[in-house]
């Protein structure tokens, strides 16, 4: 009799155990940033930050001397982002302010610096591009050009985009690695 009751007792205890809550969208976010343009005078690279906080930096090694370059001449460098930086980044790209960004802030200049942030969550993909247009915060600096100085349809990029770029580059060391190429 005891052998019959014991399995039922174990099953009852296991059934009372609370289920683990599902991971939030923030915990299942993937962020990619791609920088390029300026006719090779600006850093040009791609960076992917997975939900576990591992960032993969990839760029062409134009110097031809970087010790980490592969046989194809590219740098592919993994870097683990601190959990607090990962959380701050993922909260920012999942924020209402980021969701309200337009898909494109462009002066329609082919040789201007271009930055694209792509955010993938279970809800879908969101892509925002900045091309040769200043951030709103930079418009307040003395001598700043207006957003329409190159293209009458251009507008300043909201600061949340530029702050997100800075957060990505600081947390992932992308600024450091891109200076090495």
Could you give the topology of this structure?
Blueprint: H1 2-16, E1 30-36, E2 45-49, E3 54-60, E4 74-80, H2 83-93, H3 96-99, E5 104-106, E6 114-121, E7 124-131, H4 159-172, H5 174-179
Parallel strand pairs: 5-7
Antiparallel strand pairs: 1-2, 1-6, 2-3, 3-4, 6-7
Q: In summary, what is this structure?
A:
With 181 residues, the protein is an alpha+beta fold. The chain has 5 helices and 7 strands.
Major sheet summary line? 7 strands, mixed
**β content, as a range?**
15-25%
Helix content: 25-40%
The average pLDDT is: 79
Structural class by sheet pairing and helices: alpha+beta
**Strands ordered across the widest β-sheet:** 4-3-2-1-6-7-5
| Gap from first CA to last CA | 74 Å
Principal-axis shape equals globular
Query: Can you write the helix and strand succession as a string?
Result: HEEEEHHEEEHH
How many extended strands? 7
List the total number of helices.
5
Which residues sit in consecutive blocks of at least 5 with pLDDT less than 50?
A: 1-22
Rg on CA atoms, Å: 23 Å
Oligomeric state:
single chain
Question: What are the main properties of this structure?
Answer:
alpha+beta; seven-stranded mixed β-sheet; 25% strand; disordered N terminus; 28% helix; 5 helices; 7 strands; 181 residues
């Amino acid at each position: 009799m005891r052998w019959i009751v014991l399995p039922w007792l174990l099953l009852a205890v296991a059934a009372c155990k609370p289920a683990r809550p599902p991971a939030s969208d923030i915990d299942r976010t993937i962020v990619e940033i791609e920088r390029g343009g300026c006719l090779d005078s600006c850093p040009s690279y791609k960076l992917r930050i997975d939900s576990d906080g591992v960032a993969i930096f990839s760029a062409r090694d134009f110097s031809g001397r970087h010790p980490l370059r592969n046989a194809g001449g590219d740098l592919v460098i993994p870097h683990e982002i601190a959990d607090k930086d990962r959380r701050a980044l993922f909260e920012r790209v999942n924020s209402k302010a980021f969701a309200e960004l337009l898909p494109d802030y462009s002066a329609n200049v082919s040789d201007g610096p271009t930055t694209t942030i792509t955010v993938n969550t279970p809800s879908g993909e969101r892509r925002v591009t900045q091309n040769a247009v200043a951030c709103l915060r930079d418009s307040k600096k003395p001598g700043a050009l207006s957003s329409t100085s190159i293209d009458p349809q251009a507008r300043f990029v909201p600061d949340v985009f530029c702050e997100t770029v800075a957060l990505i580059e600081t947390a992932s060391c992308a600024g450091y690695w891109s200076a090495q190429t």
